[in-house]
Each structure stands twice: as structure tokens, then as C-alpha cells.
Amino acid sequence: MVAPSSLGGANQTAPARGRPLCSLETHYACRVGSPLYLPLTGGCGCGAVRFEIDAPLVAAAYCHCTRCQRRTGTAMQASARVEPGSFRLVAGEGLVRGWFAGDGLEKVFCVECGSALCARSPEDGAVSIVRLGALDEDPGIRPSAHQFVAYAAPWEPIPDDGLPRFPERLPA
Ligand SMILES: [Zn+2]
Ligand SMILES: [Zn+2]
Q1: What CATH number has the domain bearing residue 127?
Q2: How far apart are the CA of 89 and the centre of ligand 1, in A?
Q3: What is the number of the ligand closest to the CA of 65?
Q4: Distance, CA 2 to ligand 1 centroid (Å)?
Q5: Which of 7, 44, 62, 154 is the most exposed place for a label (fewest CB within 10 A)?
Q6: Is residue 11 situated within a structural domain?
Q7: Which long-range CB contacts under 8 A does 66-73 form with residues at least 24 apart?
Q8: For the chain, percent of residues with pLDDT exceeding 70
Q9: Which of the four pLDDT bands, split at 50, 70 and 90, describes residue 171?
Q10: Which pLDDT does position 70 carry in this prediction?
């Protein structure tokens, strides 16, 4: 089945699956009149690892930290917070590995293709962050800030998108 996002985005009719959900003010897709369908689905580049998210994403931001630069090979990573307990792996569990840099969350990727997927607690494995690029369709939310801009890559300007910029971590 062809994802609606590849057919032109929010103006296309969403596929008949899951349940429409339009309750959150923060939902870009709902504000523009395109209902969000749950579960959100996503996975890695090789397709072996698949996941589902049962609740709307909570908030999203761009991260310019050097860890994100290293693990993605790009200037910044767009990620979103997930409702606790709403993320579940549905395929490829054996191919999932995490990088724990000594503090913070473990950065989770597919060992086969290297795709960045999510971040989880090093203690209990609870997933609290998903990488927006790993999602199949419009997640219904847009990044609302840039964090760790003090470490931004010198070779790519921070987008002039009007979003607030924080030198260090985004205030909670
Ligand atoms: Zn993969
Ligand atoms: Zn980062």
C-alpha cells in the first residue's frame, strides 16, 4: 500500500486503518484538518525492524548535539517524545542495539542497516523518544525548538524557521 505522504501529504485521504484522533492542540495534522491515525508505524531502512506507537506524539524538537551528529552523520536529528508505554517493537527485536554514551538515554538503532530508531532508558528499556525520520507517515506533530545549538555543525546553518534556539538541552 502506498503511504499517503508520498502522494502529496496532508490533503490526501488517510488510509482506513486505526482510529482517527484529533484532540491535541499541538497536533499540526489536526490543526490543518488531516486526522491522525493510530497506531503510528515506523521502522528502519532495511525493513527488518518495525514498531508501532499507540498514542499521539507529545512534543518534537531538533537536536544539534555532537552525539546526534555522529550517530546520524547529519547536522541535526528531529525527534519526538512518546507517551510512556505507547511504543512497541513489532518486528526485528533481535536486530535492535543501543548505544549508551555514559549518561542520558540509550540511542537505539538497527544493527543491520544502522538506522536510528528511538531512545530508551538504560535502566528499564522504556522507550521515551522516537526519531521522526523513522516514521512511515506524517506523525501529526512538528518540531517546536532547536536544542544544543552551541554545538551545531559549522558547515550547515541552523534553519531560519523562527523556532526558539537553546544553547544546551531544551528546558523540561
Ligand atoms: Zn534495518
Ligand atoms: Zn542530540
Answers
A1: 3.90.1590.10
A2: 13
A3: 2
A4: 20
A5: 154
A6: no
A7: 66/151, 67/101, 67/107, 68/148, 69/151, 69/153, 71/99, 71/107, 71/109, 71/116, 72/116
A8: 80
A9: confident
A10: 96
